[in-house]
Amino acid sequence: MRQKRTPIKRMAAARQTGKLWVIAAVILLAAGAAAYYVLRYQGTGLSVPVSAPAAPAAATGQQTRGAEARNNPPVVLSASITPATATANDRLRILYVGSDPEGDPIDWRFRWLINGTAIQEGPSSMLEPGTFKRGDTVSAEVIGSDQYSSSAPFMTKAVTIGNMPASISDVTLSPEQAFIGTTIIAKPAGSDPDGDDILYLYQWRVNGNAVGGPVRDNTFSTDGLKKRDVVSVVVTGTDGFATSGPVVFGSVMLGNRPPKITSLPPSGLQNGFLEYQATALDADGDQLHFSLTRFPEGMTIDKNTGLVRWELPKGAMFLVSPLLSMTGTAAGTRRSL
Question: Contact at 8 Å (CB) between 123 and 109?
Fold first, then answer.
């Protein structure tokens, strides 16, 4: 049979129930304080073992993110150096692609390395010529940063600086007036952007036809050639890696050599009569013609043989110094008798 509660027992039961509600309220307040603690200090670098779920977007009306929320750093997707086949005269540039997961503005920084050593760091994606040379390997690191964190460095593929060929700016031939037997000298002028020594090769030509093959000798003998032959040279240069040219600058035409009088005039007249056989030599083999340029009346010369004749007029006295002229095809020589 169920025992009936007295008023005193009912009051004691009510007090016990009130205590339970107070204890439950204290537990709820403690749980709320712990959740606030986690939300307040999450993301500061502190290690907190207790966490609480974030409020649903439907409850807050919008999703917010700031210093209190966890940030995702920017990401470098790709980066490369251009031109890929660079020389010491090229300006190098980094082509890069990146993004930020939250759409934050990104500050980009670039670290240039030559042969593994950093030589430039900052916001410039350009590397000017003059800081690297042929044979150097150039690479770069790309880093993107938002206001909270930075991406992992992205290293580009290294670019090896290639060779620049030498250039020939001029070739002079000397002497300007040359004859058969003259040695002609070629003097090239050139430069190499990498500072390499230039080896020149000479292909000599006569009247446009090659004489032998390319040689290192910059001199050419004209022995055995003919007057009016044209000598030229084709010059190429190499720095050991690449060849420049061929280059042709000017030419030299072998000129006429004047004939030489080889005879000596007589010292006087014999019995009032002068006879002198003039002789001459032409190195070019030209046919010679003799003439008198200044002479007394009655003196003659055979233009083909060079024989000079003159008879002193009777009763006359002369101080005679005739001038003999002898010409070849294009030039002449004079000598006083």
Answer: yes
